[in-house]
Amino acid sequence: LAEHGVNYDLFSRALDEQLPVPADIAVLPRPLVGYIGTLQDWFDQELIEFLAHSNPDWTFVLLGKPTVDLARITRLPNVHFLGRRPYEDLPAYCRQFSVGLIPYILNAHMAYQNPLPRFEYLAAGAPGVATAIPELIDHGDLCRVARTYEEFEAATADAIRRNAATDRRARSDAMRSETWVARVEGICRHVMRIKSR
Asked: Left (φ > 0), alpha (ψ -120 to 50) or beta: where does 42 sit?
């Protein structure tokens, strides 16, 4: 299995204390609970609604292209849909996230997914919280996995608390060897090993 890689050089810029705060989130109340990715039918709006109602002091920031109607959650006062943003700007948003979410509905499609945002959040230093996608279950040391809405809420609250600069640096450092270049080199090693037979 060749997993996703991550553009580590780009996303690790989120550790830079001088990185400007994006204007569209500068005035939003903290903590910021963020999501980056396509908002498709597997994005669990019911989970976001549950979290937003239960935690009115959390601000939810959603970035990405929607392919479904988001009215159910964007009507909530603490949920902000910002649409797509340039790829090179994403580290500035991640730096402001107290936690990055992977709130996907568990279905047959998700059984075979390895979500790219996990690598991006972590490279940026942000803790990740995800629903129990099979590919993420064994990565619980870096990305918390939850099986119920209540577990997801508790994991998010805990991630918000564990957000010191040293924690963010450790998460980012753990992604140094997970680059796209490293993935290609790994594939090439396997190809050459087989070729040498």
From this structure: alpha
Q: Assess whether pLDDT exceeds 90 at residue 112.
A: no
In the numeric block, the tokens 């976001």 are attached to 48
Which residues, 6 or more positions from 69, have their beta carbon under 8 angstroms from its beta carbon?
Answer: none
| Secondary structure (DSSP) of 121-139 | HHHTT--EEEE--GGGGGG
- Average of pLDDT values for 174-191? 95
Residue written as token pair 């060897």:
177
pTM, entire model: 0.94
Euclidean distance between CA atoms 41 and 13, whole angstroms: 31
- Is 48 within 8 Å of 33 (Cβ atoms)? no
CA dist., res. 160 & res. 30, Å (int): 10
The tens digit of pLDDT for each residue in 130-147 reads 999 988 887 667 899 999
Is 182 in a helix, a strand, or coil?
Answer: helix
- Report the DSSP beta bridge partners of residue 62: 35, 81
Distance CA 152, CA 55 (A): 12
Q: What is the pLDDT of residue 24?
A: 97
